[in-house]
Amino acid sequence: MKKIWIGTSWKMNKDAASAASWAAAVEQAVERSDGRVQPFVIPPFPYLSQMAQTINAEAIQLGAQNMCWQDSGAFTGEVSPLMLKDCGVSIVEIGHSERRAMFGETDNTVNLKVLAALKHGLTPLVCVGDTADEKKWSVSVESVVRQVKIALFDVPFDKVTDVILAYEPVWAIGEGGTPATKEEAETVHRAIRDALVECYGQETADSVVLLYGGSVNLTNASELLDQVNIDGVFVGRTAWDAEGYVELLSIANSKLEH
Ligand code: PGA
After folding, report:
1. 140-151 and 107-119 helices cross at what angle (nearest 10)?
2. What transmembrane ranges does the database entry give (predicted)?
3. Stretch 86-104: mean pLDDT, rounded?
4. In which domain, by residue range, is 175 found?
5. pLDDT value for 257
6. How far is the centre of ligand 1, averaged over its atoms, from the C-alpha of 41 (Å)?
7. Which of 143, 93, 102 is nearest to 123 (CA)?
8. How many domains does the chain divide into?
9. 89: domain CATH number?
């Protein structure tokens, strides 16, 4: 059985003290978790080293919210894969819709970052999603599959399963977002899985971890996790508060009891 992934990105939130108290509260719950639940946390860059020192990397994986595809050089304001590794990071989030919409991230730069992450042994967590207009025009699947195929361009066959994909509808994310229904989420997840089958074959496609993100909360997490092609959830607001995150872990743990 695949693991159930429960992750959060803090986006541009928290400070050193609130990061420390979140880690302390979550650490105990993580220790009690079934090993088949895989927690991860993605703080802002300045707190990565602090988090690496406080959390047990075996139990909860540490991620970064972005990275440059270059190893080093004259790239002011950027952070390289080697620097992330130095800070104890194992996952790098790539292509979140906030970065695509506000900071010029494109399908092409997402692909360069995926290749760079894999080259350095980091797990790329690639976010893909349809806009509200694309949903209205009924081209959600086309838009998302296109993003997936470009993100994975030139990824060696044996590395595809090292990539995590997160379907995050732009219309579902953040304040004012409407969570996807379990049917809407599963439809797109199935389409992503089918595209992976087409490109890499069934066995490889089945091994790729597909997460759902966008207004996941303590009410809808359970039914989302019940979907065949949803291997976990990637959560913002609900998980910023340690209690919310711990509750998500226990929902995931309860799935494994049956
Ligand atoms: P949200 O954020 O859970 O606050 O909607 C999700 C995300 O952006 O990944």
Report:
1. 40
2. none
3. 98
4. 4-255
5. 77
6. 13
7. 93
8. 1
9. 3.20.20.70
Q: How far is CA 144 from CA 39, 191, 193, 197, 255, in A?
A: 25, 9, 11, 15, 28
**pTM (global) more than 0.90:** yes
Task: Evaluate: CB of 239 within 6 angstroms of ligand 1.
Answer: no
195-245 residue pLDDT tens: 999 999 999 999 999 999 999 999 999 999 999 999 999 999 999 999 999
Return the ligand 1 atom nearest residue 179 CA. Answer: 5
- What percentage of the chain carries pLDDT values higher than 70? 99
Catalytic residue among 93, 98, 168, 184: 168
Alpha-carbon distance values, 21 to 63, 210, 241, 242 (Å): 18, 29, 10, 8
In this prediction, residue 89 carries a pLDDT of: 98
Q: How far is CA 251 from its chain centroid?
A: 18
Burial class of 55 by CB neighbour count within 10 A (0 to 12, 13 to 18, 19+): buried
pLDDT value of position 28 = 86
